[in-house]
Write a sequence for this structure.
């Protein structure tokens, strides 16, 4: 598997994964996104110094994405696996390798992930990567990982 920065050529894959019904159900923003909105967002994102968007490639295929948003006091992380690659135990390798790669560029004391409480696979995944549950805000669990916690 390789982890590489996303490019504009990844737009269609990213949009398909984003509009997949399971992704929508588990997202904080549950609106369907159209192609124009999406390509505008992707162009801004890949040029934004405070966002890292990685694509994982498994063989010749794009198997998932991990996004890091740098805020003043923390980095927010999110992940979306290509629906064709879900449930195969790949997510840990994708997320942990992405965190390692991101941490070579950015130093941040804290990484945070917001996860819907019914998203059992994501909760397991982030815990396995060293995140700990901090708070619950209505249906959303906040998981945090300190810089020195193991991935
Ligand atoms: C959440 C997501 C990243 C997990 O990736 P995945 O490929 O489906 O998960 P994996 O096969 O790698 O499994 C991860 C863990 O969850 C468990 N798991 C998988 N599906 C599960 C389910 N439906 N219920 C409970 N546990 C589940 C696996 O057994 C594994 O646990 P283990 O390491 O103890 O064996 C992926 O499903 C996804 O992209 N979902 C849509 C977007 C999303 O929810 N993103 C997270 C928002 S914070």
């Amino acid at each position: 598997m390789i982890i590489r920065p996303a490019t504009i050529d990844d737009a269609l894959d990213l949009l398909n994964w984003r509009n997949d019904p399971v992704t929508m159900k588990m997202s904080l923003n549950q609106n369907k996104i159209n192609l124009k909105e999406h390509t505008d967002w992707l162009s801004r994102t890949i040029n934004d110094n405070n966002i890292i968007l990685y694509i994982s490639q498994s063989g010749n295929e794009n198997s998932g994405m991990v996004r890091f948003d740098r805020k003043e006091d923390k980095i927010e992380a999110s992940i979306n696996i290509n629906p064709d690659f879900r449930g195969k135990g790949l997510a840990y390798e994708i997320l942990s390798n992405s965190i390692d790669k991101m941490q070579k560029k950015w130093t941040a004391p804290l990484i945070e992930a917001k996860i819907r409480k019914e998203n059992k696979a994501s909760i397991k995944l982030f815990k396995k990567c060293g995140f700990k549950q901090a708070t619950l805000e209505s249906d959303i669990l906040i998981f945090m990982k300190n810089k020195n916690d193991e991935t």
In short: The chain has a mean pLDDT of 95.
